[in-house]
Amino acid sequence: MNIFYSLTAIFFKLFNPQLLVSRGARIDPRAFIARGGPVSIGEGSIVRAGTMLLPSGGNIDIGSKSSLNQYVVINGMGGVSIGNNVMIAAFCSIFAASHSIDRTDIPMQQQGMVSKGGVVIEDDVWLGTHSVVLDGVHIGCGSVVAAGAVVNCDVAPFSVIGGVPAKVIGMRRKNA
Ligand SMILES: CC(C)(COP(=O)(O)OP(=O)(O)OC[C@H]1O[C@@H](n2cnc3c(N)ncnc32)[C@H](O)[C@@H]1OP(=O)(O)O)[C@@H](O)C(=O)NCCC(=O)NCCS
């Protein structure tokens, strides 16, 4: 099994020479990692089938023991940092940039991309299925993002947030 995942990592490195895969990380061969920026996947982390890591000129850093379930899409243009023990459920999206919409005299398509500084997801965060994390957001450690949430502002540690746009719907107890 380890040889299988080692070969898979080598296969993905053919597409993106800036890919760093740590010991014990597992990338499903049905995932996709594009070229165009550094991508690192920490020790023991898992990238499941259908997930797309698209650096788009930025970096995507994933810590150790984190899991990206099926069909997660990450655009790393402004930089995406994901901590340790982070759980990202199926169909989540993280976008670290957006289209510029300032001008009305030319199509938005021609206005280029802008970033507010990328996305940081600290350790031990759980992103529920179909949640969307937008550019410029910092999610504090131990937080839970409810299914279907659109996160467009910073999240304090140990918060439970949900809705569109996401608001605090609870706090996790700080105990032993
Ligand atoms: C966030 C979550 C963990 C909360 O679960 P819970 O503690 O059992 O919460 P409850 O169902 O008791 O709901 C608590 C409150 O949050 C609200 N809430 C729960 N889920 C919500 C959601 N997805 N969006 C918005 N509000 C939500 C409830 O309406 C309730 O509000 P109220 O107190 O005003 O009635 C859960 O709703 C969730 O989204 N889980 C993600 C599941 C998932 O993605 N699984 C994939 C496996 S990796």
Question: What is the strand and helix layout of this fold?
Answer:
Blueprint: H1 2-15, E1 19-21, E2 26-27, E3 32-33, E4 39-41, E5 46-47, E6 52-54, E7 60-62, E8 67-68, E9 73-75, E10 80-82, E11 87-88, E12 93-95, E13 98-99, E14 113-114, E15 119-121, E16 126-127, E17 132-133, E18 138-139, E19 144-145, E20 150-151, E21 159-162, E22 167-171
Parallel strand pairs: 1-4, 2-5, 3-6, 4-7, 5-8, 6-9, 7-10, 8-11, 9-12, 10-15, 11-16, 12-17, 15-18, 16-19, 17-20, 19-21
Antiparallel strand pairs: 13-14, 21-22
Question: In total, how many beta strands?
Answer: 22
| Separation of the first and last Cα atoms | 36 Å
Shape: globular
> Would you state the CATH class?
Mainly Beta
What letter string, H or E per element, gives the SSE order? HEEEEEEEEEEEEEEEEEEEEEE
Class from helix and strand fractions: mainly beta
Could you please describe the fold and organization of this structure?
The structure is a single chain. β21 and β22 form a beta hairpin. This protein starts with a helix and ends in a 5-residue tail after the last strand. It is mostly beta strands and about 180 residues long. It has one domain: UDP N-Acetylglucosamine Acyltransferase, domain 1 (3 Solenoid). It is globular. It is built from 1 helix and 22 strands. The strands form 4 sheets. The protein has an 8-stranded mixed β-sheet. The chain has a 6-stranded parallel β-sheet with strand order 1-4-7-10-15-18, covered by helices on one side. Bound molecules: coenzyme A. Coenzyme A binds next to β21.
